[in-house]
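Hi W., the NAP complex you wanted:
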Amino acid sequence: MFFSLSENQNVNIHYYQIVYFYTMKKALIIGATSGIGKALAELLLQEKFNIGITGRREKLLDTLKEKNPDRVFVKRMDVQDLSKIEVSLNELVDQMGGLDLIIISAGIGEENKDLNFEIENDVIKTNVQGFTCVADWAMRYFKVQGHGHLVNISSIAGIRGNGIAPSYYATKAYQINYLEGLRINAKDFESSITVTDVRPGFVDTAMAKGEALFWVAPVEKAAQQILTAIKEKKEVVCVSRRWRVIGTLLKIIPFSILKRI
Ligand SMILES: NC(=O)c1ccc[n+]([C@@H]2O[C@H](COP(=O)([O-])OP(=O)(O)OC[C@H]3O[C@@H](n4cnc5c(N)ncnc54)[C@H](OP(=O)(O)O)[C@@H]3O)[C@@H](O)[C@H]2O)c1
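Structure:
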């Protein structure tokens, strides 16, 4: 048996599709090609978000889009290319029809005991300049619309200095401090704009290098805990939760002990 829709019914279906599209929550994930960002992108799709995803490895972005063509919006974006960030994010958000949540997961870290400045500079360009450019754009956007949620993946590493990867630890300290600054900057929007600082310990991704790893969380578990923190609008969260202990110890440990670890 065949049913045919009248022109009016067709118009109505189209109208409801548009309304449905614009009422869905929208999230942008910066650095969604792998690791924590990718796992969060997949979780947010399950949570019925429309998502915008960025990164440099375009093929990996396209793979996620192929599975959900109507709800995933893709933009190749290198966060070191500061002059293109604002234009790219505006284009992506236009396609998505708005923005409620942005997660900055793009980050790099390198061991650099010999203090090669090229390496340090690369880390600074991504974790400081790129991060700041994206975070500032997001906060300006949220202030204009009057609400929004910024999440950044910093690290437990940001609590103290480190001699093997000095720029990684220092840039994560910068992020932690900057996020606190943004929270103060948006104090007039206290109940409507949230800034969440996610501080992972070790998570099982390409980034977790070296042999002296412990308490390594599976990436799915880390993403699930981050999602819970987002729903609860937490300001600071350690992932996995047991890393809170290490975070507290790091804060109080004397330098004479720290330099021997
Ligand atoms: N894994 C851990 O143990 C751990 C612990 C503490 C904190 N973190 C933090 O968690 C965040 C995510 O890392 P991960 O563990 O998920 O590692 P990952 O799998 O290496 O993911 C890093 C992401 O950052 C993106 N990215 C790197 N440089 C970029 C650039 N110049 N422009 C745009 N995107 C860039 C990568 O995309 P493309 O390469 O495609 O550009 C990738 O999607 C990082 O900020 C990291 O510092 C991780």
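Residues 31-37, 55-57, 77-80, 105-109, 126, 153, 155, 200, 202-203, 205-208 surround NAP (CB under 6 Å).

W.
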